[in-house]
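Q: Could you fold this chain for me?
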Amino acid sequence: MEEITDIDLENYQKDYTAYAGNPLAEGAKSATREEIIEALKTVSDPEIAINIWDMGLVYKLEQKENGDVYVEMTVTSPMCPVADMLPNQAAIAVSQVNGVGCVEVKIVWEPAWDVSMISEDAKMMLDLL
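A: Sure. Below is the predicted structure, expressed as structure tokens.
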């Protein structure tokens, strides 16, 4: 097998950001962090079939007082074929939680993802323990 050594990773590490949801009505009760995490667990990397939370792909989950949510996540590889789809799927999933307003999900490239970021549950599913 020929090794590919001339890939320009800058062309693969594009800026992927997705938005979903609407502002919450004033005084509406905000969702809990746990409810948001459960929504993120409904989104899976199709190549691995494990959700993005347990894969350790979500790096930051920020919930604002007005119900808006900001998420930074990554993908398993800079050349991931679903890097443009996963943020949109995550934004939609989170926006469907009662008590969530506007959602922004952004792909970040640092730190680079590695297998040590996988949850214990996912490691058992992948037979890595």
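A (continued): Residues 86-95 form the longest helix (10 residues).
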